[in-house]
């Protein structure tokens, strides 16, 4: 375990240089997460790569220390996590309510939701971080990274050990000193080069797909060549990867073939178009049902600890934790008075934001109906967000931030908000005086807007306690870390709107293009936003695919039963139902690179274990540095491809052409597919060999 800085120590923590560095890292990782989330519906945890970069920079500065590095990664991870709000906000463009992303409204929603997520979970720190035995996997991993980096930068013998294969060697081992940053840089350069060749120059394809039929049933074999997704799959691990594969097989091995066999294609519709249309219009709702029941089950299993967390929060806000100045340094949270004042101020600001949003949609709406919708939305977002914050904090501690079902929580929230608004519109005659188009669009837009706040609260709550766990392990001052989290939310909120606008104007979203003549093949899928929008529309139009959702619920219930049996048997075999749902509602071009990355990690781990046993080494110790190198390389793949996606968006936006850098035309597509496949295989093999080549400790 990391060596904890003593309570009496007075080291620099929340410094100006750290805040500036954190803001720069925030810009990189937030842009990467926004792009990745819009493209494939996934985001990545940025705490560990942020810690690596921070230590690589600050180790060159006099007086830098472990606590200062911890503050930098805390700030950057909060901003990166806030990017999850893109799972909802693009829906406002998909329904035609917004024509772009209004800077101040988008910034306000991100900042208010994120800071509320921080404030709601501060009172949970003692019971869930200090006094509990929850594992907090990412929090502990980040603390270990900070510890090794601190030891390597302060121990004179560390550099010598690096050349001798002794403890403290090598950079993915030196964790996180400069060599660790080099691993991120290497992964980033490789992924960036591939992404430029495919998305920019078009000499490599970004996927390969083959359709075939058996009778009237259509089947698809497909994979994308996204190195970012390979890196994400490596981080997800084999359990999550196999669950995604099961979901893919359910969708494309059972559901799509069955539906195509009983649904004749439309006149002139190709086999591929018919299959994709049925997947988009029907099969994805099976995934929504599976994800929804996974989230509900998780919340149900956490009901008791969630009540404990809520009771603790309320007790803390009554001032039961003792005077701030009477506490030791490592026990000082932000005082309850400040928490309550900030929370009240943010809820007032949220009321203003909702009022502006409603007035912009329907200026004619006034009086009781206007304020009922405004205050009701604030009340729901505030109260439900508080409950979700406690649940997400516990879930993150139990299964990790990456495995916490944020998407499922978003689906549950959007359904609840939609049903409440549907009931209000049924009993209120205020909508009768509105233009029919406005009356139809307003409840849908408001449901998405309210859900975006809840999702911001949930995402930050999911990340906050991981960071506070890291701080607890290294001996950070809690209130300073909480201020860093708030700064991260503000910086992230300022970064997200321009990045969203840039990507939208360059690529467009599937179902929402900013101008004519754009290439629909380059449109970002925004899968979660698309799915939540479809659910809201279905609720208000009374034509939601309830049959498919019920099928998804049934599948999810069966899978939950199987997962519970596996849990009781012990061992590593599990079946995370959320990942199965993701496999159903994402296309195989996205799913398969994730699976490939997970399998790649599994093969590497098997090889490391076999090699350690053959040498008589301790398996875990011998595998530690190669595994860390793999994490850093995978993070580099994600960041490199994502940043190139944002860069290409800027070039496309400035030029106005859909493919301004293309060197070849459409007639090169067949060759580009096989070239892309060949380079993709070579990179995966290179990743495998690079990780295994890392020096090991014995």
Describe the overall structure.
The chain has 698 residues and is mostly helical. 71% of the residues lie in helices and 2% in strands. The protein contains 24 helices and two strands. A two-stranded antiparallel ribbon has the order 1-2. A hairpin with a 2-residue loop joins strand 1 (207-214) and strand 2 (217-224). The two termini are 18 Å apart. The model is unreliable at 154-179 (pLDDT under 50).
Layout: helices, strands, pairs:
Layout: H1 16-40, H2 47-58, H3 66-82, H4 91-94, H5 103-121, H6 125-130, H7 137-154, H8 158-164, H9 178-200, E1 207-214, E2 217-224, H10 227-236, H11 238-262, H12 271-301, H13 303-317, H14 336-361, H15 367-399, H16 406-427, H17 436-474, H18 478-507, H19 527-541, H20 546-569, H21 577-585, H22 588-615, H23 619-655, H24 669-692
Antiparallel strand pairs: 1-2
How many β strands by DSSP?
Answer: 2
Overall shape: globular
Report the uncertain regions: 154-179
In helices, the fraction of residues equals over 70%
Summed up, the helix count is 24
- C-alpha Rg, in Å? 25 Å
| Strand fraction | under 5%
Distance between the termini: 18 Å
Please give the largest β-sheet: 2 strands, antiparallel
As laid out across the biggest beta sheet, the strand order is 1-2
Run of helices and strands: HHHHHHHHHEEHHHHHHHHHHHHHHH
**Helix and strand composition category:** mainly alpha
Rounded mean pLDDT score: 80
């Amino acid at each position: 375990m990391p060596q904890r800085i003593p309570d009496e120590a007075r080291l620099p923590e929340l410094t100006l240089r750290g805040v500036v560095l954190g803001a720069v890292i925030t810009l990189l990782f937030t842009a990467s997460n926004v792009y990745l989330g819009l493209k494939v519906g996934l985001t990545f945890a940025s705490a560990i790569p942020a810690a690596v970069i921070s230590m690589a920079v600050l180790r060159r500065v006099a007086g830098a220390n472990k606590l200062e590095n911890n503050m930098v990664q805390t700030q950057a991870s909060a901003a990166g996590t806030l990017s999850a709000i893109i799972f909802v906000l693009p829906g406002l463009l998909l329904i035609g309510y917004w024509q772009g992303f209004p800077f101040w409204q988008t910034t306000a929603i991100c900042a208010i939701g994120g800071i509320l997520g921080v404030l709601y979970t501060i009172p949970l720190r003692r019971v869930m971080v200090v006094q509990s035995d929850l594992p907090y996997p990412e929090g502990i991993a980040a603390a270990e990274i900070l510890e090794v980096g601190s030891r390597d930068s302060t121990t004179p013998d560390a550099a010598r050990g690096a050349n001798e294969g002794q403890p403290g060697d090598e950079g993915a081992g030196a964790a996180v000193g400069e060599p660790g940053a080099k691993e991120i840089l290497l992964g980033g350069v490789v992924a960036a080069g591939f992404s430029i060749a495919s998305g920019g120059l078009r000499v490599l394809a970004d996927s390969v797909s083959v359709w075939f039929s058996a009778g009237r049933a259509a089947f698809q074999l497909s994979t994308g060549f996204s190195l970012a997704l390979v890196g994400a799959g490596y981080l997800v691990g084999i359990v999550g990867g196999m669950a995604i594969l099961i979901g893919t097989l359910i969708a494309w091995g059972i559901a799509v073939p069955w539906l195509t066999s009983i649904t004749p294609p439309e006149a002139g519709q190709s086999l591929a178009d018919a299959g994709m249309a049925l997947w988009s219009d029907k099969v994805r709702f099976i995934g929504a049902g599976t994800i929804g029941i996974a989230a509900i089950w998780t919340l149900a299993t956490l009901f008791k600890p969630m009540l404990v967390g809520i009771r603790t929060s309320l007790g803390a806000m009554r001032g039961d934790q003792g005077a701030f100045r009477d506490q030791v340094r490592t026990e000082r949270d932000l005082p309850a008075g400040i928490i309550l004042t900030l929370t009240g101020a943010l809820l007032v600001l949220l009321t203003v934001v909702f009022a502006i949003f409603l007035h912009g949609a329907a200026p004619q709406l006034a009086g009781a109906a206007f304020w009922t919708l405004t205050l009701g939305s604030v009340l729901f977002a505030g109260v439900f967000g508080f409950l979700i914050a406690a649940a997400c904090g516990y879930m993150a501690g139990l299964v990790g931030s990456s495995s916490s079902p944020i998407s499922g929580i978003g689906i549950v929230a959007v359904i609840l908000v939609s049903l409440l608004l549907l009931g209000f519109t049924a009993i209120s005659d205020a909508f009768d005086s509105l233009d029919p188009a406005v009356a139809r669009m307003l409840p849908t837009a408001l449901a998405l807007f309210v859900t975006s706040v809840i999702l911001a609260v949930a995402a930050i709550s999911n990340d906050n306690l991981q960071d506070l766990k890291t701080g607890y392990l290294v001996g950070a001052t809690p209130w300073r870390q909480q201020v860093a989290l708030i700064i991260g939310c503000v910086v992230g909120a300022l970064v997200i709107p321009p990045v969203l606008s840039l990507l939208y104007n360059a690529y467009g979203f599937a179902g929402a293009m900013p101008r004519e003549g754009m290439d629909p093949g380059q449109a970002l899928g925004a899968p979660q936003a698309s799915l939540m929008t479809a659910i809201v529309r279905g609720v208000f139009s009374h034509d939601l695919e309830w049959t498919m959702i019920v099928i998804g619920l049934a599948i999810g219930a069966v899978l939950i039963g199987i997962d519970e049996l596996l849990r009781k048997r012990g061992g590593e075999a599990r079946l995370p139902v959320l990942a199965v749902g993701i496999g159903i509602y994402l296309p195989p071009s996205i799913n398969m690179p994730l699976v490939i990355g997970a399998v790649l990690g599994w093969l590497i781990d098997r090889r490391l274990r076999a090699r350690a046993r053959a040498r008589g080494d301790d398996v875990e110790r011998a595998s530690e540095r190669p595994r860390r190198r793999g994490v850093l390389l995978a993070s580099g793949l994600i960041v490199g491809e994502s940043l190139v996606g944002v860069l290409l968006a800027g070039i496309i936006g400035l030029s106005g052409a859909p493919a301004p850098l293309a060197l070849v035309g459409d007639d090169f597509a067949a060759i580009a597919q096989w070239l892309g496949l060949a380079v993709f295989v070579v990179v995966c093999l290179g990743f495998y060999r690079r990780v295994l080549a890392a020096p090991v400790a014995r």
